Amino acid sequence: MNFQKASFSKAYGLTSQLPQSSVPEIVLCGRSNVGKSSLINKLVGRKNLARTSSEPGKTATINFYDIDGVFLVDLPGYGYAKKAQSEKERFNALMGGYFGMDRDIPLVLSLIDIRHEPSRLDINLIEFLIEAEFPLCIVFTKCDKLSKAQINKNLKMFEETIPCFEDIHYVVCSSETGEGIDTIKAYIEESLN
Hints:
The chain is built from five helices and seven strands, in the order ββαββαβαβαβα. With 193 residues, the protein is an alpha/beta fold. The chain has one domain: 3-Layer(aba) Sandwich (Rossmann fold). A seven-stranded mixed beta sheet has the order 1-3-4-2-5-6-7, sandwiched between helices. The N and C termini lie close together (11 Å).
């Protein structure tokens, strides 16, 4: 799979706008400001294919990126407190609607900032993905901000707080240094076979 063969395809703000699934969709989900856009850019070797923002909660649509004939699907970030109630309801409908459709999803990358304990929303999402039997890989982002000792300490904490952690693939990564990026690419390619 050629990750450099990448282009933005389309953004959808409502479930009713989503097209039928026609090619495999690798899904990225996680809290606002967890680093989904930075990870997409690092995976494809581009600076700004996916727009990054210092303001959390900016992505309010489901964004589709065509990566060599496979879609990388960036779901809106969750957990941003300042969103209006109507916006939160639209977001919930969008997320639920996407996962509720009959889609070709060989892999879901659930992003969690390695520096922080997982939120209730992170845990809920992982429980949902396990229950719905979606193939799952947890991507711990921003590892360049911690020492090796802190990373190991936090991984022990995740082991105790994330359900079924011992059965889930995970990658420790940094969109700054590139650590873990090749492993994520390998998981994506493996999921497509």
